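agent: user wants the full assembly modeled, not chains individually. Plan: 1) parse entity lines 2) check alphabet per entity 3) run joint structure prediction 4) return tokens. Steps 1-2 passed, two entities, 992 residues total. Proceeding.
--- entities ---
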Amino acid sequence: MLVSDQALLVLALVPGFLAAFLCMFLKRSPGVARWVTLVALGISAACLGILVVKAQSGTISIVYPWIPIWNITFGLKVDAFSGFVGATVALIGFIDLIYSFGYVGPEEAKSSFFGWMALFVAAMIGVVMATDLIQFYFLWELMLIPSTALIVHWGTGTNPEATGFKYFIITHVGAVMILISFLWMMIIAGTTDLGLLSERLETVAPGTLKAMASLLAAGFGVKMAIVPFHVWLPDAHSEAPLPVSVMLSAVMMDMGIYGMLRFLFTIFPSEVLASLSVPIMVFGVISQWYGGIEALGQTQMKRVAAYSTISQMGYVLFGIGTMEFSGISGAIFHILNHGLAKALLFMTIGCVIHMTGAHDLDETGGLAKKMPASALFGIVAAFALAGAPPLGAFQSEWRIFAGGFEAGRLALTVIAVLCSVLTAYYVLRLIIKVFFGPWIHDKEVREAPFSMLGAMAILGLLSLVIGVFPGPFSNMIESAARVLGL
Amino acid sequence: MMFSTGGNAAFVIASLAVGAVGSYLVTYPWRRSVSRSWFLGGLVSVLAYGTALYFVFTPYKEWNYLAFDGLGRFVAIIALPLGAVVSVYSMRYMRESDGAGRYYGLLLLMSIGVMGVVSARDTIGLYLFFELMSVSSYSLVSFRKDQWAPVEAGLKYVMLNATGSSLALLGISLAYLYRDSTLLGSVGWVLRTQGAHFLSPGALALAFTVAGMGVKSAMVPFHTWLPDAYASAPAGVSAMLSGIVTEMGFVAMLRLVLGEFSQGYEVFGYVLVFMALVTMTVGNLGALGQRDIKKMLGYSSIAQMGYMMAGMGLGLGLGVSDGIRGSLFHIMTHSAMKAGAFLAAGLLIDNIGSRSIDDMRGAGQKYPLIGSVLAISALSLAGIPGFAGFMSKLWIYRAGLESGQRLGWLVSTVAIGNSVLSLGYYLPLLFVLFRRTEDSREREVALTTEGQLPPAGTVLASTRTPWELLPVLLLGVAVMVLGSYPVPVLDALESAAATLAFLGGL
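--- prediction returned ---
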């Protein structure tokens, strides 16, 4: 073996931070900066890929003392669950960066763009590997700074500052709810180590535990843009520069899912969770339908995709709320499948925006003639999001709904399943309006550049592979769900 | 004295005093060459601070009236490096004013006052050093005495703080009347033995002390002097005032009240908690409306004083020692981040010629180092993890929840809410600083092609030198280090917290 498992853990986390640091000194050569970033994320993705395979047979972890006098440690841990999420993050981050090569020129984007992107991805990888509450909170908030910088500085809307402000404040309030719950648990348990919390909290009154769990669910719900907390998402996701939209929509949302699953299921006993099951499912269904209906009414392409994210997070939340093995494993699987599909959809929209300059649905039409490859990927993305069988998302959606039936919530599950129709409708409406119908562009339109199409091809193929050969992937998510004690 | 791990307070003060005289004398022959006098004065001043810091780490030595305990040493570790940083910064920042000797002399006298307040062993000594500190700070606030605004701000500062000092003296005298002693903590003694009911001697002594020292520490009904004073003072002085001098009012209050009994300070704790809630909220609301960056930072200092009082109040009132730890640590982190913010803002103001935030569009990109330090300090002040402010606020939040009482939860919730509220003015500031400006590029082009002066607020080419940038950068690094790896200072912090926890009877 060339490097030890522990070295792999460090190698998965550090390159992103290192690249971000280097980009500070590469101000004059953005071309170098983007290659540095790409290589760094490539190393991260490769390490996490190896780690996720290794983690199937056992947890790999390493713990450093951080602030010994206060008993705070800095640990890196990969088990089947965090390895799966981390690998998804790194993989989509890496592909997104390849895409951004075609989408923004190095001069236009500047070195700092790539530095912030690297920091953003590295922070997310750190979040899934964290073992200590304080460490988790540090990295959780660290996601916020680069993403806000990217939204505000490179934003495409009329008032990116207002968008960034709303995004920062609302997600920060969510983080603060998490912090209060963390502090509460730390005080009662006397430890900040995630692994020790559940046994130390055994004797606590169920009412207190329920309050802690609700605070956590709400806090992570903000990051997942569950309906009462969703207000930051549509603007942030639609006005960010496209590669950043991909990261926000396809990857950052997964952090909320990861946090919710990790903390709720490893810390709290099942009685406490059972009492939260129905409320979580109801919120899930509300988000599903709200996001879908809003997506139907949008006129901007990116806003359709943004609202679709709210809806898809509703699916995931529904799956979490079932508290059943298949529901949870479906939710975990949907992290990857939604990531691939949503990234592909955003990238397709990005191709259209990049090649035609149009943002509105009304300004586009009939593009399939000139952009056949983009159209193909768009159709793949649409079918994947709609949960059509040969593609990946189908595999996760049926698990989620099966979980709903297993939990015995017949009516809720039927309402949730029906939303798939709505999803298919709005996403196909988007693709049909953009790529088919009469040609309404007055200028010459060419196909998107190769780096963009290449990145999309990887995503589309992956989605297809997962749909056709789900075996290894379902083993992975099942062991991930077992890590959570299901 | 209790919990001391070393230090020689008398030598610390002596070296600062030598520095004060020395910097005045050394600049005198060079008074006609302004820039040389600033350089020499600064050099002597830095040497004095360095020597003083050396004596903080020598073996413990107790003199009759002066000695370090854990708290004193902790304050010395904050105040002396801050003084050195401000001295280096002022070497070049102040080069256009004359009076280098006066400036450094007063700065060192102020530091003597600070060190004296924390190392004095009786109430009279403490009061005298406190007045020395106050008088030097009045003069420093109106250092630019040829302009009206600093003089006016200084006048306001003197009026309010002199009133505060007399009130505090009244409290001390009242305590002397009943205790017949000038030992530290005599106010607390009276409070304990005479009862705390309405208009009892104990309540009166406490009220006078809290109100008097509250003026100096910008507790809310007495805070009105602060934004003007900070805004009008030279940047280095603002950094020193908000970094350590304002906190000394709070520390002196603790010294006067806590001590002899090691118990029974709940009333004082509750008073602090109540004042803290009002102070942090009013400070943040005041800052929300400011467009003048120095006034905004001033109001933010008021809010941060509220955090210190909240932590200490939770510690003394509800018996949670984590509150004391958080409160003391916040003194340290606040001094790094607020001094960093003031020094960076000072350079920025110098460069663009305006104190208004509206004129700072894109300035952070033009001056990336200054802008970054300002950004780091602002995020730190807002309690974003990774930066110093979070580390100390964490303990204050935690203390409230730890108490398990409604009041504690209320304090923590209000404190957390206030941190979110403070983002309401820090984030727009950061967005303005790092705004992508099409028009700034156009202005630059206009400037080079037509050779005309740009409109007010346009970012001009940098004229900064390492002498000014170095201290600013150091403070930025300090904020990052304190926020991510505070281990090196934690021994001093724990010993200071243990001292106060002992005095407070925890």
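agent: reporting back. The first helix of chain A runs from residue 5 to 25. Residues 355 and 445 of chain A are 6 Å apart (CA to CA).
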